Amino acid sequence: xxxxxxxxxxxxxxxxxxxxxxxxxxxxxxxxxxxxxxxxxxxxxxxxxxxxxxxxxxxxxxxxxxxxxxxxxxxxxxxxxxxxxxxxxxxxxxxxxxxxxxxxxxxxxxxxxxxxxxxxxxxxxxxxxxxxxxxxxxxxxxxxxxxxxxxxxxxxxxxxxxxxxxxxxxxxxxxxxxxxxxxxxxxxxxxxxxxxxxxxxxxxxxxxxxxxxxxxxxxxxxxxxxxxxxxxxxxxxxxxxxxxxxxxxxxxxxxxxxxxxxxxxxxxxxxxxxxxxxxxxxxxxxxxxxxxxxxxxxxxxxxxxxxxxxxxxxxxxxxxxxxxxxxxxxxxxxxxxxxx
Length: 340
Ligand SMILES: [Zn+2]
Known about the structure:
Structural class: alpha/beta
Order of helices and strands: HEHEHEHEHEEHHEHEHEHEHH
Number of strands: 10
Distance between the termini: 44 Å
Radius of gyration: 21 Å
Helix content: 40-55%
Strand content: 5-15%
CATH class of the largest domain: Alpha Beta
Bound molecules: zinc ion
Number of domains: 2
CATH topology of the largest domain: Rossmann fold
């Protein structure tokens, strides 16, 4: 990773000083849905920018294999924006090859890593922190760091539009701060001893850390490892011991493992319900929907968790949506069906 960063810095000096002055289009390829959303927000109002997203809604970036047209698009791009820390597990060789060409390969996780906010993946068996956990965007404060750094990088690449990139980033960071305050108030409305998030994979460590919740994932850090029988029994014991009322499924993972846990808890005479809807994990919703934006994705997860606790009979208050925060959640989201 450090090697790519140095390469990236080296390449900045050999690039033409001003992309837009040549009348060229700035071609940006983005890997994940989060990367696409951020690139669109920061380049809003800038002409001659073309963004090519590779992964759509509901795609698991750990497993996604770049197609030949993806590789072609990356080869022809001025800049590839990806999440990093091996989230895009099948892209390592492609990124290495791109790094040897005249393509800027930008990892959204790099400024967060440089700032010291990347946390290690928790291995419940070893009880130690291992490799870097790639799901850094789930803490909105990390996403602020990323937004500002990406805007600066775009400004260096395209100085004519620097003012727009930086103004977009500043306005967006204000929105992220409002989002964080709202989410933090809501998530802390659940009593401390009940703040456990049990999911099918460990995407939510940063999300939990941001709002004072603890995690229990059936699977480890990557969806490449299938959950074993031992993992499921450990989770069942954990759920029963801690009287966890809700388990959550996430949108990019098949729900089988969570269903196995629910059945086993019930077989042991326990009671646990599944969340009122799936959580957004590594992929956001369809473009043009509330969950298709970073703000909406994160907010949907907060609503889903708090509403599920309410449906389980817990006394939890969900704070009002802030007036100046966009997009605005739709009625369906605000009125869940507890019996669904
Ligand atoms: Zn993941």
